[in-house]
Write a structure and sequence with these properties.
It is a single chain. By secondary structure, the protein is of the alpha+beta class. The protein has 4 domains: about 90 residues, eRF1 domain 2 (Nucleotidyltransferase, domain 5, 2-Layer Sandwich), CATH 3.30.420; about 170 residues, OB fold (Dihydrolipoamide Acetyltransferase, E2P) (Beta Barrel), CATH 2.40.50.140; about 120 residues, no CATH class; about 70 residues, Hypothetical Protein Ychn, Chain: A (3-Layer(aba) Sandwich), CATH 3.40.1260. It contains 13 helices and 24 strands. The strands form 5 sheets. Strands 16-17-18-19-21-20 form a 6-stranded mixed sheet, covered by helices on one side. A hairpin with a 2-residue loop joins strand 2 and strand 3. Helix 8 packs parallel to helix 9 and helix 11 crosses helix 12. It is globular and about 95 Å long. The termini are far apart. About 30% of the residues are buried.
Length: about 500
């Protein structure tokens, strides 16, 4: 598999597209005014402790208070083992015995605010480097579980020697598997220096205060998104290319060696029609090459994906048609989950298959495609209703939530009341007002389509109501109003 990373930079927004075998697989967007908070370290103030929920709300100077659960409160262990919050093997001390209102508390964001929910916090501080993750409150030295088991013991011994007696816990990241001792020592020194700066800020600044900000998207491209399959990282800004090359030369020289300055006349995202892919990723319908299609609906609680055959009639029998459509859908769904960054509970409704070997083959292909996702996913088997339930870890806002907002006309419902329904609501409201007030006249201000209905098909009903209440009813069209909006003015 060949991978290219395209970076489109502007002062207000950075966009990164990951291209695999010529197709857009992931899109990352960071806006200057809306940078994510995950990884940031704050000195917060405990605003409220809720023993019943075993949680606390922390004021960090943000729009909404952040959430700290007892499971994310770090506790020092006497034997030097990792904290109970990380291991999940020892009972937790109740949160009301660990924090109190008004307390200054160093916390780290582990989940960005999503929707109406505030950020989720942990008091277990971790600072990610190029090769290592530093746990300054621990003395534990570990190795990523993604590294083969037979190599972990040797790597752990090497890391223990490099860490020495200065203390602090370290976890070797996957991309540090083949690092030299000099590279690891350099990363250890960088992380300890960063932690010293954070501690100094915590003693100097009053809460709430930002103590440490995680790398920006451009820097995270080098740290997190580059893999062995990455051929090139093309960036269309000469200034940012220079800054990123300098950053990469110091911390990630192997990744920085793949940096290329894009000098083409066409916008860089036009190379692979990335903007067109974004437009398609914001729609409900995804067309498949065979003629079938997906319908993707994202709700507050979960996301549903419905597979349909559409106009595909390419196979000799109906079972083969369904099977081939579902196989193609398995590829497309896995790609859409990455491209749209959909997380949480996801329900996939494949087309019903009668043959068990077809169901097994589709499920195996679906899991194979999901395995390429850098975000953790878990897919179950077909349920009795023929549905596949799966989860994908939420790491940030979905693409739709980041780029779109609810429709002001339908308030996100996807539908609006018909003009006739609104007209009848207005008639009932006038009757209700007439029983309480005695104005000289009623004036209806509504959308043009509603006023047109009153002037035509509903004119008899409007006149009948006017006679019944004994008051004139005048009409005023307002083009700025949505179809469901109206106002009744008492004159």
């Amino acid at each position: 598999m060949q991978q290219d990373i395209l970076v489109n930079w502007s002062p207000q927004e950075t966009r990164v597209a990951i291209i695999e075998n010529g197709a857009v697989q992931e899109l990352h967007v960071e806006r200057t005014l809306e940078r994510g908070l995950v990884g940031n370290i704050y000195l917060g103030k405990v605003a409220r402790v809720l023993p019943g929920m075993q949680s606390a709300f922390i004021d960090m100077g943000l729009e909404r208070a952040a959430f700290l659960h007892v499971a994310d409160v770090w506790q020092r262990q006497p034997d030097g083992e990792p904290p109970a919050a990380a291991r999940g093997t020892q009972p937790q001390v109740p949160i009301e015995k660990q924090v109190f209102e008004g307390q200054a508390l160093m916390v780290q964001v582990i989940k960005d605010p999503i929707g109406t929910k505030g950020a989720r916090l942990s008091t277990q501080i971790s600072i990610a480097g190029r090769l290592l993750v530093f746990l300054p409150q621990d003395d534990h030295v570990g190795v990523s579980q993604k590294i083969p088991a037979e190599q972990r013991d040797a790597l752990r011994r090497r890391l223990n020697q490099l860490v020495g007696e200065e203390g602090g816990g370290f976890i070797l990241r996957t991309n540090g598997e083949d690092a030299s001792d000099a590279e690891l020592a350099e990363d250890i020194a960088y992380l300890r220096k960063t932690w010293a700066r954070i501690r100094e800020s915590a003693t100097r600044l009053p809460p709430p205060a930002l103590l440490h900000q995680d790398l920006n998207l451009l820097q995270r491209v080098l740290r997190d998104l580059v893999t062995d399959e990455t051929q090139a990282i093309r960036i269309d800004s000469r200034e940012q290319f220079g800054l990123l090359a300098e950053f990469g030369k110091e911390f990630m020289p192997a990744a920085a060696a793949r940096l290329q300055l894009y000098k083409g006349e066409r916008p860089i995202f036009d190379l692979y029609s990335v903007d067109e892919e974004i437009d398609r990723a914001l729609g409900r319908r995804v067309d498949l090459k065979s003629g079938g299609y997906l319908i993707v609906d994202q709700t507050e609680a979960l996301t549903t994906v419905d597979v349909n055959t559409g106009g595909y009639v390419g196979s000799r029998n109906f079972d083969d048609t369904i099977f081939k459509t579902n196989l193609e859908a398995a590829h497309a769904i896995a790609r859409q989950l990455r491209l749209r960054n959909l997380g949480g509970i996801i329900i996939v409704d494949f087309i019903d298959m009668q043959r068990e070997d077809h169901r097994d083959a589709v499920l195996a292909e679906f899991r194979k495609q999901l395995a390429r996702d850098r975000v953790k996913t878990m897919a179950g088997s077909f349920s009795q209703l023929g549905l596949v339930e799966m989860t994908r870890k939420r790491t940030r806002e979905s693409l739709a939530h980041m780029l779109c907002e609810p429709c002001p006309s339908c308030q996100g419902k996807g539908t609006v009341r018909t003009p006739r329904t609104v007209a009848y609501d207005i008639l009932r409201e006038i009757l209700r007002e007439a029983r309480q007030f005695n104005p000289r006249e009623y004036r209806v201000i509504a959308a043009p389509q509603v006023i047109d209905l009153f002037l035509d098909e509903e004119s008899q009903h409007l006149a009948g109501l006017s006679d019944f209440i004994g008051k004139p009813i005048s009409l005023q069209s307002e083009s700025a109003m949505g179809q469901e909006q109206y106002d009744i003015v008492l004159l």
